[in-house]
Design goal:
This protein has 252 residues and is α+β, with helices and mostly antiparallel strands.
């Protein structure tokens, strides 16, 4: 039975975050970016303890609700009773980022086919199309070490991320993080579009028309400024939620 009711012990602030994060899971499913029951999206709760919410392992993203999201600490320990456990492969990545970067409140990890194809290439993301240009200077690259299960990889992942908000997990997938769920989702959408365009362009014959680094840098800086200083990402996120809810009946 899918849990949908607000627990009595849940604050209004936490419940609002749970609703927004559940919407994010359903949006990722709606856009077709899921990897069956795998991958993970987390949102940090307010407070000094660095607790965060994440999906119950074994559920489809379409089965995630505000009520059944897990609340865990930086070691992956559940803080509320739940019949579900988390995905161990997610704790190393999410706990590392939430423990080290106070400016990242939401972290999304995916490996769609276009993203997986791009991160398998040695050159990684290019910056010669509209979306790729917006990522210029915003990506950290991390060498593949296998499934992210082990404590000792955390430090290296954080070093690879640096002060960036996009982490390419080479030969694996992507992790994007921002100061809100809305901003993180918009950043993931941009990364996904960049990967789709790069794959499509690579399948065509002929030479690419390269962009000057200065132009790409200007695009990236402008996009970052719009996300940081305006309600741009929130408008986009709310519009996508409305579009999805017009086509789907959600269980809450």
């Amino acid at each position: 039975m899918i849990q949908t009711l607000k627990p009595e012990t849940c604050s209004d602030e936490e419940w609002a975050l749970r609703i927004k994060l559940a919407h994010c899971y359903h949006l990722v499913d709606y856009f077709g970016w899921t990897e069956t029951i795998f991958n993970h999206i987390s949102a940090r709760l307010s407070g000094p303890a660095h607790h965060y919410l994440v999906n119950p392992f074994g559920l489809n993203y379409s089965e995630v609700t505000p009520a059944n999201l897990l609340k865990v600490d930086l070691h992956g320990n559940k803080l509320d009773e739940s019949p579900y456990d988390g995905n161990p492969a997610g704790f190393a990545l999410h706990s590392a980022v939430h423990g080290a970067r106070d400016d990242i409140q939401c972290l999304l990890h995916t490996h769609t086919t276009p993203i997986s194809a791009v991160v398998q290439k040695k050159r990684g993301f290019t910056h010669d199309d509209f979306y790729g240009a917006q990522l210029y200077g915003r990506i950290g690259y991390h060498t593949f070490e296998g499934i992210t299960l082990f404590e000792d990889e955390k430090t290296r992942m954080i070093e690879s991320l640096g002060d960036k908000h996009i982490l390419v997990l080479r030969n694996h997938g992507i992790a994007v993080g921002e100061s809100s769920i809305e901003k993180a989702f918009f950043l993931l959408w941009t990364v996904q579009r960049a990967a789709e365009n790069q794959c499509a362009a690579g399948a065509l014959g002929g030479e690419d028309n390269p962009l000057e680094a200065g132009i790409a840098e200007r695009c990236a800086d402008l996009t970052a400024m719009l996300i940081r200083e305006s309600g741009f990402a929130t408008k986009f996120y709310d519009a996508m939620v409305r579009k999805m809810r017009a086509e789907r009946v959600l269980p809450w």
